[in-house]
């Protein structure tokens, strides 16, 4: 974490960081308590203070480099003029024995924690537009029109079931012959641990939409779903999945999507309300068989697949 002035952290019952509570050396030491002397990098002018699983980096002005003796400094660190440095970086890491990261050590190795047994976090989900999803680990093929029983059999019990009370897009369905009403009997199956929502028709009880989540920070649904590692096949078949010219993944930015699918015109504005989402609205672009919700930074937030 680099911009500590924009991030407020909580330790026990106390807050530190953010615009109102600067994470100074004195404040950090007072909150987290005594620890061993840190290390001083003369070349970068950075003093690092370590706690188990946590470290703070403080910039040391060149005129005060003499305050650090033999790579260490007195605690708490204060400059001769009475000021104290402010944290420029906070690192969180695995403090287990043998990781070469911890109190008084350099952070030359900070591996990601292992995934739980049976985790599907890295599973690729191949999507053929207008046809089906293919789950590469379990080998399940789930087409449009599948029933709830198919999902219970293939993917197991959903994490949640959500009734879609209002269809806000019905006004745009000019070709829909049904009576114009916003009331909706459709319902979702939520698979949060797969980054996936499935919308069923409330009358036919058949799949009508798949919603794939990228779980990028800055979106209202961040951390509600894990990332769905989808691979959307634009042309061709599943064996062509490694053809990078015709596939879209969570890391594909919007400009690249337009190069693959072409320009689709103006976007609809999607907002969760300024009080619940400080990052503001997103943009929804529609294509045949797919709609892309795109954040202001150009990253895909969700992809909704349907048959048109």
Summarize this, please?
This protein has 308 residues and is mostly beta strands.
Notes on the structure:
By secondary structure, this protein is mostly beta strands. The protein folds into two domains: 4-92, no CATH class; 124-306, no CATH class. Helix content is 7%, strand content 30%. The chain is built from three helices and 21 strands. The chain has an eight-stranded antiparallel sheet, with no helix packed on it. The model is unreliable at 100-106 (pLDDT under 50).
Category from helices, strands and their pairing:
mainly beta
Global geometry = elongated
What percent of residues adopt helix (DSSP H or I)? Answer: under 10%
End-to-end separation in angstroms reads 44 Å
**Cα radius of gyration in angstroms:** 25 Å
Whole-number mean pLDDT = 81
Low-confidence stretches: 100-106
The total tally of domains equals 2
Order of helices and strands: EEHEEEEEEEEEHEEEEEEHEEEE
Strand order of the largest sheet: 12-13-14-15-21-20-19-18
Report the sheet with the most strands, covering strand number, pairing sense and barrel closure: 8 strands, antiparallel
Q: Count the helices. How many?
A: 3
Protein name: UPF0183 protein
Keywords: Membrane, Transmembrane, Transmembrane helix
Family: Belongs to the PHAF1 family.
Transmembrane segments: 12-32
């Amino acid at each position: 974490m680099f911009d500590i002035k924009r991030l407020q952290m909580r330790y026990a019952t106390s807050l530190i960081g953010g615009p109102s509570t600067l994470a100074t050396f004195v404040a950090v030491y007072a909150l987290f308590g005594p620890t061993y002397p840190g290390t001083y990098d003369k070349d970068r002018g950075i003093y690092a203070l370590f706690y188990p699983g946590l470290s703070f980096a403080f910039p040391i002005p060149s005129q005060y480099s003499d305050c650090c003796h033999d790579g260490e400094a007195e605690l708490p660190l204060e400059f001769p003029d009475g000021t104290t440095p402010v944290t420029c970086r906070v690192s969180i890491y695995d403090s287990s024995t043998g990781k070469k990261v911890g109190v008084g050590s350099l952070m030359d190795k900070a591996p990601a924690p292992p995934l739980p047994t049976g985790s599907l976090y890295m599973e690729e989900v191949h999507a053929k537009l207008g046809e089906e999803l293919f789950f590469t680990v379990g080998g399940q093929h789930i087409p449009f029109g599948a029933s709830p029983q198919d999902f219970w059999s293939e993917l197991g019990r959903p994490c949640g079931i959500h009734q879609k009370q209002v269809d806000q897009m019905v006004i745009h369905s000019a070709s829909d012959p049904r009576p114009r009403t916003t009331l909706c009997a459709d319902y979702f199956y939520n698979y949060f641990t797969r980054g996936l929502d499935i919308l069923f028709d409330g009358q036919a009880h058949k799949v009508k939409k798949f919603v794939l989540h990228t779980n990028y920070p800055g979106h209202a649904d961040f951390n509600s779903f894990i990332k769905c590692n989808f691979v959307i096949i634009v042309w061709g078949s599943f064996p062509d999945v490694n053809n990078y010219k015709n596939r879209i993944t969570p890391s594909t930015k919007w400009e690249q999507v337009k190069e693959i699918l072409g320009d689709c015109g103006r976007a609809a504005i999607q907002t969760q309300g300024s009080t619940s989402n400080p990052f503001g609205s997103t943009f929804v672009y529609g294509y045949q068989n797919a709609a892309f919700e795109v954040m202001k930074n150009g990253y895909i937030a969700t992809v909704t697949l349907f048959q048109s």
